[in-house]
Amino acid sequence: MSAGHWDYEPFWKEVIDQIKHEITEQEFIMWFRNIEYHASDESQIILNVPSSFYKDQVTKRYLSLLENKLYDLSGNKIKIGFNIQLKVHEKSKKEKKEEPAPVQKKTVRTHPQLNKDYNFECFVIGENNSFAANAAIAIAKNPGTAYNPCLIYGGVGLGKTHLIQAIGNAAYSEFPHLKIVYVTAETFTNEFILSIKEKAAHKFKNKYRKVDVLLIDDIHFLPGKVETQEELFHTFNALYDANKQMVFTCDRPVSELKSLSDRLRSRFERGLNVDLQPPNYETRIAILKQKIETKKVAIPDEVIELICKNVTTNVRDLEKALTKLIAYADLVNKKITIDIAQRQLKDFFTHPQYKNITLALIQKAVADYFGISSNDLKCKKRTKAIAFPRQVAMFISREITEFSTTEVGLDFGGRDHTTVMHACQKIENRMKTDPTLEPTVQHLIKTIKTQNTSG
Ligand code: ADP
Ligand code: MG
Description:
Layout: H1 9-22, H2 25-32, E1 36-40, E2 44-49, H3 52-74, E3 79-84, H4 88-91, H5 130-141, E4 150-154, H6 160-174, E5 180-184, H7 185-197, H8 201-209, E6 213-217, H9 226-241, E7 245-250, H10 262-268, E8 272-276, H11 281-295, H12 301-310, H13 315-332, H14 338-344, H15 359-370, H16 374-378, H17 384-400, H18 405-411, H19 417-433, H20 437-454
Parallel strand pairs: 2-3, 4-7, 4-8, 5-6, 6-7
Antiparallel strand pairs: 1-2
Helix pairs in contact: 1-3, 3-11, 5-6, 7-8, 11-12, 11-13, 15-17, 15-20, 17-19, 18-19
């Protein structure tokens, strides 16, 4: 493409210079390191990006910021266009092309104990996980300093293991001399028990108290294991006093772990606690596209959209759906079409009967039942007559829709997602002691579903 007599490259350079100072270093490296200026015409700048995934992410995150800056600098409405450089998987279809630069330029070393695919480069950051991901990136850069300990919590398949191992891999790349140990809480427990049996407690202590970075996955396994908790408590203190980095993951907030000693709980809660939420639609699309790129297959956008609309639970399920589809297409040697996807993925598309249930519908049904108004549920009032129905409505929202706690909180008068989690927990607990509550909730759910299909 000829640049004509338009050359906006100096503006672009200036924009990049400014951006560098406005976003974090990790973000900059993540999103701008692989972009290069390509050409300009009268109304736009064309940038080279390594994949459609990059294009989508940069568009979503930065496009308006970039275009505003270009406007401020030039006084012209200069748009930004993207030129996607073909990646390896397209090569099989077109004739051999010269190999473009791979996305990951840096040589990334993998810790021998860890999964090489669990790195930051292929972890898609969305609203649902950005706090946790950025904390993880920061920890890997500076273990033992800012966020120590760090606890990452969230439901199954949302990326806990991926993130905690990515910390290990990145820290290992950056600081090869550090002793990094990754272990699941289950393995930690088993090793501890074995060490006692074999009278080798000393060896066990040596192993875990002499590390620089200790990564323990799935600490929800610990409740009830009194001695292991005791041992971990002492390990924690030793490492903490020595400014060694610790990261833990858990499938729920530590406050909700039962049978955990108070002093261990308080240790987990001491540092940074960050959560992972289910990804929203846009992030699911970004994740799926990213996974597809690594698998070197061609999947039409409409199929990607179909999957992301229907598989809303977590990333693991998204991956399973993709794997199944690819396996099928491979086996029968067919192109993946929307019909094939629809037929093959039937089982993944859960709860079709719940589809389209809106939070407004739930709010109205619950409010009607308790003789209050939908607005009462969204307002600030915390009297019992309103707080209780509100908790019920939040609970039902989480039960029968796929809205995240963040989304539910927003729709209930802009409340925090922790409030929603709290409400659900309260209702669950109360159901155990109040035998009338469960039938009420079931009745409400039935009403809502009927209204949904009739409306
Ligand atoms: P958890 O430990 O929370 O159950 P995992 O870390 O095992 O979840 O994640 C399940 C799968 O989803 C893994 O293959 C992981 O790579 C993938 N995954 C999760 N979150 C993301 C993300 N944000 N970007 C890319 N892949 C992700
Ligand atoms: Mg896990």
